Amino acid sequence: MVISAAVGGTLQYGYNLAIMNAPTIFIQNFVNETCMERWDVQLEDYQVTLVWTIIVSIFSLGGFAGALIAGPMTIHFGRKKCMLLNNVFLMSASLLALTSRAAKSFEMIIISRVLVGINAGISMNVQPMYFGESAPKHLRGAVSLSCAVFTAFGVVLGQVVGLREILGSEPYWHYLLASNAIPGFIQLLTLPWFPESPRYLLIDRGDKEACIKALRRLRGCEVQSSELDEMVQEQAETSGMRPSRPWELLADRAYRWQLLSVIVISSAMQLCGNDSIYFYASYVFKEAGVSIEKIQYITIGTGTCEFSACIVCNLLIERKGRRFMLMGGYILMTCWAVVFTIALSFEHVISWMPYLSMACIFTYILSFGMGPAGVTGVLPTEIFSQTARPAAYMIAGSMMWINLFIVGMLFPFLVSSLGQYCFVPFAGVCLLSAVFVGFFLPETKGKTLSDITSEFHKLNFKGHQKNSLSASPAQYQLGEVCFSTSL
Fold first, then answer.
1. What is the 8-class DSSP label of residue 169?
2. Does residue 478 have a pLDDT over 80?
3. pLDDT tier at 191 (50, 70, 90 boundaries)?
4. How far is CA 373 from the centre of its chain?
5. What whole-number percentage of the chain has pLDDT above 70?
6. 344-353, Cβ contacts within 8 angstroms, sequence gap of 24 or more
7. What does the alpha-carbon distance between residue 47 and residue 28 come to, in Å, rounded to a whole number?
8. Which of 14, 190, 289, 314 is most exposed by smallest CB count within 10 Å?
9. How many CA atoms lie within 13 A of 25 on its CB side?
């Protein structure tokens, strides 16, 4: 089930980021040639660069739109059907990319990138939700983290398929852009055979028999009473409640720290500079003396680093916990960003500094994969109730895509204005993120939603509880008993 959902899901996010590196020059030439044929106008270099920037960056805006519609789609269609319907955007995008060259229309490529961005935005929200609601408690983190594993695998796959020897050459670039349809076809053929999210079936649709049947198929054995009792308890707590809307969640004090945690961690995932270091990799490799022909092969190593680190994180998350992996990842990234800045500053003074820069690229990506890459997507499933979860993912996904767009647009200006110090802001983001996680994010490993809600309740109503205790101890104790009973 994990493979079927992820191949047509988060793998698409990594794959569609990676495949845009190889055909850069070919698409820019295509844009110029198209303008010459249509209007007999030779575009200036900056105009071609502007069109190319739009083609690349519009993916993020599509992802933002996908994140916004993912919540309503999961409520109306369910988790599994939502992922299947999501392939409509993907197949439309692939068809446009495939025919854009014959139609001599770069506008079709832009529309294609918007649609594939919507597909990725929906996948990045719905797939972790589907996994988190379907997995048993002791495997919830590892199963949800597989979203990051497949994202990293998508990056590696895109880098490999984009090699000049495969589809990264001038005659085949439109096939490269349309190749994302293949994973989509695999999902369409396999995912219908797997069950819907058991929690969605019980809590949202009230179908206990379908829930038990889904659990039995996913577990491969009889359903444990403790697991079903927990779901029934959550169903009782949310009985008669409709799914929350994002603006209602923002105004609800009971979710204040959960929401703040998700906003901070989702924003930090993009503002930490991991995607930017991929951009800087080619420059650093060139400075280290690697020939231009071989850089494309070494770049595959950067994607492989993140993929390997995500697998290791998958193995460690249920042992070390979410806080440890997140905080440790950001602390290591802070250290490597500082070392990277020093290496860039002295690369023309000390002969071996470019090699240190290369090492920093790999260690930075490894540190990102060991924590932030995977744990970020797990949190909304674990800290929000069934009714609040779709809205929480809408907010988290929106923050992720907006910040990805901002970093993509601002990073070239950071490089030109700050030079070798361009990673200092990223180091600051990583350090602040580590501090926030260490002080304010409770551990969720192996805990039920009731346990996690109880811990966040202490943060959300900290001042209120103190005032109630000083004003009327008896009334506070009664409220505490009532609260415990309701949980």
1. S
2. no
3. very high
4. 7
5. 94
6. 344/420, 344/423, 345/420, 345/421, 347/287, 347/420
7. 10
8. 289
9. 7
Rounded to 5°, angle at Cα 254 from 468 and 467: 15
DSSP 253-266: GGGHHHHHHHHHHH
Average pLDDT score over the chain: 87
- Of 324, 333, 310, 320, the closest CA to residue 432 belongs to 333
Which pLDDT score is estimated for 484? Answer: 38
CA distance 437 to 421: 26
Amino acid at 247: W
- Neighbouring C-beta atoms of residue 326, cutoff 10 Å: 28
Residue with tokens 């197949």: 91
Query: What pLDDT, in 10s, does the model give residues 427-461?
Result: 999 999 999 999 989 888 888 878 888 888 888 88
Q: What's the token pair of residue 71? A: 């919540």
* Spatial contact of 97 and 178, defined as CB atoms under 8 Å apart: yes
The first and second tokens of residue 96, run together, are: 């446009």
Written as six digits, the tokens of 387 are 């009714």
Q: What is the 3-state secondary structure (H, E, C) of 68-125?
A: HHHHHHHHHHCHHHHHHHCHHHHHHHHHHHHHHHHHCCHHHHHHHHHHHHHHHHHHHH
DSSP 424: H
Q: Which H or E element spans position 358? A: helix 353-370
* Integer Cα distance of 342 and 357 in angstroms: 9
Residue 23 DSSP SS3: coil
> Alpha-carbon distance 395 to 424, whole Å?
27
CA 358 to CA 349: how far, in whole Å?
16
